[in-house]
Amino acid sequence: MTQLYPTIAECIGNTPLVRLQRLPGETSNTILVKLEGNNPAGSVKDRPALSMITRAELRGDIQPGDTLIEATSGNTGIALAMAAAIKGYKMILIMPDNSTAERKSAMSAYGAQLILVTKEEGMEGARDLALSMQAAGKGKVLDQFANGDNPEAHYLSTGPEIWQQTQGNITHFISSMGTTGTIMGVSRYLKEQNPAVQIVGLQPMEGSAIPGIRRWPEEYLPKVFEPSRVDRIVDMAQREAEDVMRRLAREEGIFCGVSSGGAVAAALRLSREVENAVIVAIICDRGDRYLSTGIYDEPK
């Protein structure tokens, strides 16, 4: 009888793909967004978080009761904290101290221990500390930046879902790039189905600070990243990403974070260049984890 009901882990994925109604304006293109905030812990990172832990278990790399360590800017940390709670692991998360209060609180709610590095040390410093703690025997680093189980989760789930939901009609895929796991896995799957599908990656313009995405220094470029899998990279200004984020909430009823606003801003730009296209952008999380920043408080 109990097997009729899913576990929380089985509720990850199969997120809605919805059509934008007002932002695109008069166009022959269809702009679709995948609502990854509908995952249990609220972001696209639920997929690789569970994948990295489950696959490490299957390989015998970890077992329940072990301590896991990860550097994160937010969404992966929340997702890993949830996955660790589901699976029975202790979780240590290392993050810059300028991460939002909502993110810190969500990680703590799932039982994770937080270690903060300075804003100046940033994600690079968090990654270095995670590896030094592992070397000191304090736990095992999953390393989302170099772990093939990260993009594999999207190759096995996000990519196939998008292909099926668009009935194979997708022409362009747009994703913000942080660890690059999402864009790597989805690109691999979609290109196998149709090599003509264009893959567009989003990075912040120099001087812009968009939570969750980065312009990585060469020495910190994620090892999972394969440049050949991205056809085009768009530099996004922080202001444009924030403006479209607010418009998504006010004009489309889609409440999301800044990187998602950037992805849709890139989709709107692209839509002005092409015709009869089916453009899919990832809405990677929900907007409620950014409210304390005041980013939604600007006048309407």
UniProtKB/TrEMBL annotation:
It catalyses: O-acetyl-L-serine + hydrogen sulfide = L-cysteine + acetate. GO terms for molecular function: cysteine synthase activity. Its cofactor is pyridoxal 5'-phosphate. InterPro entries: Cys_synth (IPR005856), Cys_Synth/Cystath_Beta-Synth (IPR050214), CysM (IPR005858), P-phosphate_BS (IPR001216), TrpB-like_PALP (IPR001926), TrpB-like_PALP_sf (IPR036052). Residues 10-285 form the Tryptophan synthase beta chain-like PALP domain. It comes from the Bacteria. Signal peptide: none annotated. The keyword Protein biosynthesis does not apply. Its EC number is 2.5.1.47. Keywords: Amino-acid biosynthesis, Cysteine biosynthesis, Pyridoxal phosphate, Transferase. This is Cysteine synthase.
